[in-house]
Amino acid sequence: MWLRWIRVLENTKVGLSSSSVSYEMSTWQPGASREALLRRACLLNRLRGFFAARSVLEVDVPLLGKSSITDVNIDSIAVTVDGTTGYLQTSPEYFMKRLLADGSGDIYYLGKAFRDGEIGTRHNPEFTMLEWYRCNWDDHQLMTEVADLVNMLITEEHSSPMAVTKMSYGQCFIDQIGFDPHDADIERLRRLAVELGSSSWSDESRGNCLDLIFSLKIEPKLPSGIVIIHDYPECQCALSKISKNQKGQLISRRFEVFIDGLEIANGYLELTNIDEQVNRFKDDMQYRMQEGKSLRAIDQKFVDAVLSGLPSCAGVAVGLDRILMRALNATAIDQVLAFSWHRT
Predict the structure, then answer these.
(1) Any idea which fold 2-343 has?
(2) How many CB atoms lie under 10 A from the CB of residue 32?
(3) Do residues 256 and 228 lie in contact, with contact meaning Cβ atoms separated by under 8 Å?
(4) SS3 for 258?
(5) Alpha carbon of 155 to those of 225, 234, 305, 320, 333: distances in Å?
(6) What are phi and psi of 306, to 5 degrees?
(7) In what order do the strands lie in the sheet with 84-88?
(8) How far apart are CA 93 and CA 315, in angstroms?
(9) Is residue 157 classed as helix, strand or coil in its secondary structure?
(10) pTM of the predicted structure, to 2 decimals
(11) Interval 2-51: pLDDT, tens
(12) Where are the domains of the chain?
């Protein structure tokens, strides 16, 4: 529930609540204007040119699979296929890592992904995702390439590129709130979360409290242009490697990218240790049980692929619809999709 509450707040940041968006439910007309459709086509064409020039191979992977992810914060859409349960994929990640383990080299995917419960001014259950992996790169090298791509896609001809600002997650907290999140006591985080939210946050997890605080206290104050936040807390590692920063604190080699305060990408220095990966999956399963969510079996084919030898790599997923929103100064994702969920 906490994540959906944050999404309502995200909608509010752009001046619209999910309930205030007006849709003509009886009309057959698309939400996107012809200008938006043309801009999308141009954006996709330029994007493919960007990767072709850098010898990154485009791959096509299934939208429908027999397994899904265990992440408690992401809900997949289950479907029935030949009498058995399948899932629309929330991202191409697991299939792409199976390709990487088989020796594909640098690859990217451009296509649809699906997530349940994601409807609002910035969310649609079906959306366009760009995901790519660079072998033998670290997260900072990939951050530079993400900034280059975003500037190429958004900056108008003869215009100056957007400024790029990189800052650590910890420094953001120190600058805006006055304490280091990596060392902060859980009770301190909960007290602040209660002040920002409600008494229900008094027993929330460390990661959830940090997400709420970041969303309400730091995101609104991010500088304009492209902002890359890196070195997230260990508790928010997901599928990223764990390292130590210059202070000796454990951090996740993870980064997120924002354009003028709008989150558009999430990247990792990818975890390649299968034992650690399986332990994280088991933690996810335990948390899903505690939250009363349906369980998701661990994807054994993904586990086997990583066990066979996933190469050292950095990967990132980008929401292309949100980039298009920024390019067109749109206030709702419905304005850049031909037919959002409300129009189908």
Answers:
(1) BirA Bifunctional Protein; domain 2 (3.30.930)
(2) 24
(3) yes
(4) strand
(5) 11, 35, 39, 15, 20
(6) -65, -40
(7) 64-65, 84-88, 77-81
(8) 9
(9) coil
(10) 0.90
(11) 443 444 455 444 444 444 455 555 679 999 999 999 999 999 999 999 99
(12) 2-343
